[in-house]
Each structure stands twice: as C-alpha cells, then as structure tokens.
Amino acid sequence: KRYKWYCVSLLGVMLLAMFHAMTENYLIKIMGRLGGDSGSVGVALFIATAIEMPVILFFDTVRKHIRDNLLLKLAGLSFLLKAVLFLIAPSVTSIYAIQLLQATSYSFLSPTQLYYANNKVSQADMVKGQAFITASYTLGCAIGNFIGGQLLQFFSLTVMLLSGVAMAAAGTVILFLSVGKKDR
Q: What is the DSSP letter of 24?
C-alpha cells in the first residue's frame, strides 16, 4: 500500500522480462524461420553477451550521466524496438544486428532495477524492495518461457512474436507511466 507506483513499475519490469526470456529461449525458432541453425543462435547470443558486458561493467559511468528513471524508460523502448524488429526481421544477419540492442535493453534493465528499488523504497523496506523487483523479473522470465512454449505449440512463431511485441509495448507503457511517480 505504501508503494503503489513502485508496484505498478514491477509489472512493467515483469512484462519486459517475459518478452526477453521468451525470445532468448526460443531464438532457435526465430533463426530457423530465417534459415539459421544452432550455430547462428550461438553467434547471436555471443553478440548479445559481447555488447552487454562493457555496458554492465561500466554501468556506474552510465548512471552518472543518465537517471535511473530514464534508464528504465530507455530499456523499455529498446525492448519494444527489439520486439518489432524480431517480428519483421528478413534474415539471420538482421537478427545479429538486432542483438546490438542488448546494450540498451537488458544491459540497462538488469542493473538499473536494483538502483531504482533503492531510490523508490525507504531504507527500512530496502530488502523487500529489492526482493520484489528481482522476483518480478524472475517471475516474468518463467512466465515468458511458459507462454512462449505454449504459443509455439498451439499457434505459431508469428503469434509468439506478436505476443512479444504486446508484452514489450505494455511493459514500456507501464514504465513510462509509473517510474517518475512518487509514492508517499
């Protein structure tokens, strides 16, 4: 009750995690549609990891220039752009290029969420605040894995990717509406 807007923002984080986990875990299906194979997935994941590591390593420098609220909004926009681009990607090479968005999507969301929690909840509730945001991300990943599998089994890759766009869009909108709001 004390942290209404913080709790709303947790829903945004959860939705972005759902999209992220779904596309990362079913990347083999996305690549297969474009003629790629497990080697292509390996290259795509390598690109994502290689691009996110420097950002995460130098995240303190990033935070000196960009506020946490803005970092979360940028992460949301990057996930949304990534979702749309996955949907319309014409080739394996385009997926490689899309993976460069990992620098501003996952690399911003992952560390920022803990700093954001520190700024949004009182010192007395710090452990709970961090636990809840970590749990929302983890729950989002689990739900995204499950939903992605169900969508692929009962519908199609296109339906899964459209659902990913909806998840990323909803998460982004929720973050834009909630992260700047102050709780009592």
A: H
Q: Which residues contact 3 (CB under 8 A, 6 or more apart)?
A: 120, 121, 125, 129, 183
Are 105 and 78 within 8 A, CB to CB?
yes
CB 135, CB 47: distance < 8 Å: no
Helix/strand/coil for 121: coil
User: Which residue type is seen at 46?
Assistant: F
Is a pLDDT exceeding 80 seen at residue 184?
A: no
- The CB density around residue 58, as the number of other CB atoms within 10 Å, is 11
Cα 107 → chain centroid: 9
One-character DSSP codes across 38-83: HHHHHHHHHHHHHHHHHHHHTHHHHHHHS-HHHHHHHHHHHHHHHH
pLDDT for residue 131 is more than 80: yes
